[in-house]
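Dear colleague,

As promised, here are the two records you asked about, laid out in our usual form so they can be pasted straight into your sheet.

NAME FIELD: protein one
SEQUENCE, THEN STRUCTURE:
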Amino acid sequence: LRLHYAETLKYWRERFMANRKRAVEIYDERFARMWEFYLAASEASFRWQDLVVFQFQLTKRNDTLPITRGYMTKAEDALRRTAAKSPLPVPLQKPARRRASTGRS
């Protein structure tokens, strides 16, 4: 699920950036910068490094899921083809501007 999770992180980051101002109002600029960095770095790591996510599917009955996970590899292959077309691992964003310190740590 490595590439699938990279895409998930990409969409989380896009949604965060669209609501960044509100996040700063709720938390602070420092938190927003750290969260933005975490999401971007995590996406890049899952897309281009050796990070992986393991997924377990537990069911009460053994006939609930397909016998193979072909449905998962098809999605992974599609994401891999899409990622291969991208010249950059992470779209560049404007860096956050630094505000005067509020005295909070």
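NAME FIELD: protein two
SEQUENCE, THEN STRUCTURE:
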Amino acid sequence: LKIKRAHPILDERPTMGACEATGASCQCSDGCAQPCAPSIPFNGGTTSSRLRETVNKLRAENKLETLVGAEMLEQLGATAHQSGDSQEAESLYQEAVSIYTNLGALNSDEGAHLLASLGAVQGATGNMEGALKTFQATLKLRTERGILETQDGAFLLANLGAATGSQGDLEKAIQYFDQALSIRVKTDTLQTPEGASLLANLGAAKGKVGDMSAALMHLEEALDIRRVTGTLHQAGGALLLTNIGAAKAEDNDFKGALKLFTEAFKIREMGGSLHSVEGVMLLRMLAEAEVGAGRRAAAAEHFEQASRIWEQLNEALSSKG
């Protein structure tokens, strides 16, 4: 059994994650930066429709090409992404970037945050090359401005590592993850759900290049943090347990793997995410571990369940086509 993949650049559920103390960036459970509200404050009752009305009014009055207009676009983009419309969010962020660029204001802390949000939604829409270029531009900007050694910088490097890994350059991805890890240690933010996501990504990447001892060390540290912070019972937690189980199965520790796969199975079953490609992968891994542990009857049942879900997924895909 191999560790199948690093965590994706964006969680499959486009929800806002938990903001850290800066309030400038958010991160979802699988280690991806989410676009957050920019510096312009809004009360809790502000709705997407009111934001859109404001943007339309500024556009009609030819006042959108201003910093205030760009921040309104960024706010609306964050709202669109939160509601799951990544394509609209990308369009709004692109327009905001254009305004910042035309005003000569992109080389700023606000510009760095905007670019990071744009990269996140580019990843969400599958534009991984675009996301990678945007994150690299953000890295250059943050480095030049001396604002990389921050929590936001750690978010950026984690996303850059995930984007780089998705393009096949795992060694470079590991470098970015290691740099992000160093910043989290310095800023005392490793023992957080975001730190756990970073360690999970780093461990998965280490496993994919064959460094299983380092992979297991990082993955188990991530697991400890998720248990302490109460964030294990999420899709990211199930994936983390699956990866640790895979590492143990690689070392022929089938009993240890079986315990972890079973816990991941329960999380996915309770959370309704077992009926998925990841759920099928988990069921097959669980069955193989059961074979290794001598539990052939249970293995046969889980192999059959995996096949049944796989067929249902294919049927659903065929009906859409």
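A couple of things worth noting about protein two: The chain has a mean pLDDT of 85. The chain is about 70% helix and 0% strand.

Best,
R.
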